[in-house]
Amino acid sequence: MTAGFEAVTPQRAGQIMRAWAHQPWPMSVQDGIDVYTSFGFSPHPQEPQLFTSDTSPDEADSFFTSEGDQIDSVRMLLSNIIPEEKGGSAFRPQIRAAYARFVAAFLEILGSPQVAKEKGEVFSSQWFLDNCVGVRVGGNDGLIALSLESPEMAGIHQDDLRRGITDYSPANDPLLEG
User: Fold this and answer.
1) What 3-state DSSP class applies to 84?
2) Which end of the chain is more exposed for a tag (fewer CB within 10 A), N or C?
3) Do 71 and 31 meet the contact criterion of CB atoms below 8 Å apart?
4) What is the pairing mode between strands 143-149 and 70-77?
5) Where are the beta strands (DSSP E) in 69-142?
6) What tens-digit pLDDT sequence spans the chain (178 residues)?
7) By the 8 A CB rule, do 41 and 53 touch?
C-alpha cells in the first residue's frame, strides 16, 4: 500500500473503458478474461473473475460478476485505495481532481452523463451508451472506480431511474422487500 494517492491517467481510463464497453455483449467470462489480460492484468489464482489493475499489479483489486457464463458487471479500480487509517479525507482534493479529469475525458468520448451525483464523500457520473452498456466513474474519499453494466443490467438500472429509484433499499424498491 502506498503512502499517497495514485491514479491512472485519464487517457488510460478511457482506453480501459472503451475496451470493456465496446465489446460485443453479452460478454462471456472468457471474453472478460481476454479483455483484462490484454491490458497485462493478472487473474487471482483461484478466482479468475478477480484481477489486478494498473494501481495494484500484485493483488487483485478489480472484478466482474457473472450469471452462468454471462458477465453482468465489471468494477475496475482507477486509483489505489486510501485506507481509512491514513485519513482518506486528507486526500480529498487529489481524489476529486482526478475524478474531474476522468469525467472530462469521458465527456469527450461519451458526451454528457445521464446521471451525476454527489452526496457527502460519494460521487459518480453515469452514462448509458448506444449499445445499451452502462458506464459509471465514481468513488469516495478513498478510491475511484470504473464500473460497467451489461445491457441487461443497464436496462434494469434505467428502469429504476425512470421510476425514481436512486437508493436501493427495501423502503425504496418493493422488489427488494423480502
Assistant:
1) helix
2) C
3) yes
4) antiparallel
5) 70-77, 115-119, 122-128, 134-140
6) 456 899 999 999 999 999 999 999 999 999 999 999 999 999 999 999 999 999 999 999 999 999 999 999 999 999 999 887 766 678 889 999 999 999 999 999 999 999 999 988 899 999 999 999 999 999 998 999 999 999 999 988 888 888 887 665 555 544 444 4
7) yes
Record the cell numbers describing residue 116, joined without a space. 451525476
Cβ contact 128:154 at 8 Å: yes
Helix segments in the chain, DSSP class H: 10-21, 29-38, 92-110, 151-162
CB atoms within 10 A of CB 3: 7
- The whole-angstrom separation of Cα 35 and Cα 48 is 12
Q: Are strands 143-149 and 50-51 parallel, antiparallel or unpaired?
A: unpaired
Nearest CA among 62, 98, 58 for reference residue 77:
62
Contact in structure between 90 and 58 (CB atoms under 8 Å): no
